[in-house]
Design a protein that fits this description.
Helix content: 40-55%
Order of helices and strands: EEHHHHEEHEEH
CATH class: Mainly Alpha
Number of domains: 1
Number of strands: 6
Structural class: alpha+beta
CATH topology: Jann2411-like fold
Radius of gyration: 18 Å
Distance between the termini: 55 Å
Shape: globular
Strand order of the largest sheet: 1-2
Largest sheet: 2 strands, antiparallel
Strand content: 5-15%
Number of helices: 6
CATH architecture: Orthogonal Bundle
Oligomer: single chain
Length: 209
């Protein structure tokens, strides 16, 4: 574990609802990963620059001003894919590919405070503070750095065990469970669907009995 890692991305209000996005208010890296959902729920929720701008507006209250510039779409998708792979590896007790780890660390390197994620077979993911090594600059790199650092803090910090998959059937959303009893991505999503299905089964069983 890495001492002294700021968990500011972990302290935002949970389960913020937005008409365009299924789940906001998780650590920023999870919010990005959760913009890719099954087609029945919208598919890629940031598929266009306009949709990315919508997402940035929804996240603006916890982003520094220099992180509100639009990144390249290919860079954003690559980071989202790499973060999903890292979160999945952590949940499954496996290791991600070196390429996925490099993608996340390269994005973090462009930030004002550089954290690097190391991943070993024995210790799993560990976050290390490094001297700033900005290499390329350009539009949107500050945003990608904020997102990647959020993922590194979650995976390599003291709260890694909060990372969960939603227990809703077919749900792909991930979340950080501040309450260890939390099972659903959000009450208005899977929590409500499961309750409705449970009540329907009870009524059906009552009629058949």
């Amino acid at each position: 574990m890495c001492g002294g890692i700021s968990m500011t991305m972990m302290s935002t209000p949970r389960n913020r609802h937005h008409a365009s996005f299924l789940l906001l208010g998780e650590p920023l890296a999870l919010d990005l990963v959760n913009t890719l959902v099954p087609p029945a729920y919208g598919g890629d929720l940031v598929a266009t620059p306009a949709r990315v701008r919508d997402w940035l507006r929804a996240e603006a209250d916890r982003l520094p001003a220099d992180a509100l510039e639009l990144p390249g779409m290919a860079d954003l998708r690559a980071l989202r894919e790499a973060l999903r792979a890292l979160f999945t590896a952590a949940l499954d007790g496996t290791a991600p590919s070196r390429a996925q780890l490099r993608t996340v660390n390269a994005a973090s390197r462009e930030g004002a405070r550089y954290l690097e994620l190391e991943w070993s077979q024995d210790a799993g993911p560990t976050a290390r503070g490094r001297p700033r090594r900005r290499t390329r600059g350009g539009s949107g790199v500050a945003l990608l750095a904020e997102i990647s650092r959020s993922g590194i803090e979650l995976l390599g910090g003291a709260h890694r065990d909060r990372l969960r998959r939603c227990a809703g059937p077919g749900c792909t959303l991930l979340f950080a469970a501040v309450n260890p009893r939390r099972r659903w991505c959000a009450p208005h999503l899977c929590g409500n669907r499961v309750r409705v299905a449970r009540n329907y089964r009870r009524r059906s069983e009552g009629r058949s009995g």
